[in-house]
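F.,

This is the one I mentioned.
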């Protein structure tokens, strides 16, 4: 996508990223130079992404979660992230507005990409998130959150849905905004 042959990011992508992220033109240009150095093809594979992501969680098993994060940002389903998808991912996971972050979180939990979240999808993502928690932090978790299944059950209750019902994006966003515990349960923030 964009200007993969030249040494500079295309004007179109630059303007789009300036509009949709908090990054300045200079920052985007610096990110692009770094991206091109690391990924000369102009694309990052799922494996490369997982390798980068795992460096942020050296004490944990980040592979499953990084695979889901990658899927949620590979918007054209081509198995790679181009520069624009990569920068949007950085923005959304670091400093995006709360509603935009929750839209992204919904896409993370919507494993089959059908526009709804089921309890089994919540369990799948909660299991991936749980693997990010270092072993030495597990003992400090509340009794109703000390397994992936318990976390998934607790999160699912916030949506007031039965076992076989589905949650739409708007319900997900509102449910998380209405409850700080739900917001905490959909992510892992390292304590160190």
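My design for it:
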């Amino acid at each position: 996508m964009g200007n993969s042959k030249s040494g500079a990011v295309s004007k179109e992508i630059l303007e789009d990223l300036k509009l949709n992220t908090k990054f300045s033109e200079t920052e985007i240009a610096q990110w692009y130079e770094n991206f091109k150095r690391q990924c000369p093809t102009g694309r990052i594979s799922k494996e490369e992404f997982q390798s980068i992501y795992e460096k942020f969680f050296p004490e944990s098993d980040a592979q499953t979660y990084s695979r889901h994060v990658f899927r949620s940002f590979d918007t054209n389903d081509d198995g790679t992230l181009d520069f624009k998808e990569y920068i949007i991912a950085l923005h959304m996971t670091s400093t995006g507005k709360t509603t935009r972050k929750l839209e992204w979180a919904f896409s993370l939990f919507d494993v089959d990409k059908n526009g709804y979240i089921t309890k089994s999808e919540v369990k799948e993502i909660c299991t991936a998130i749980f693997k990010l928690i270092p072993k030495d932090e597990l003992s400090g978790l509340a009794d109703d959150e000390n397994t992936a299944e318990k976390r998934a059950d607790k999160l699912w209750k916030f949506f007031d849905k039965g076992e076989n019902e589905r949650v739409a994006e708007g319900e997900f966003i509102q449910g998380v905004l209405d409850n700080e515990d739900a917001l905490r349960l959909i992510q892992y923030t390292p304590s160190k």
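The domain at 98-187 is CATH 1.10.238.10 (Recoverin; domain 1).

Talk soon.
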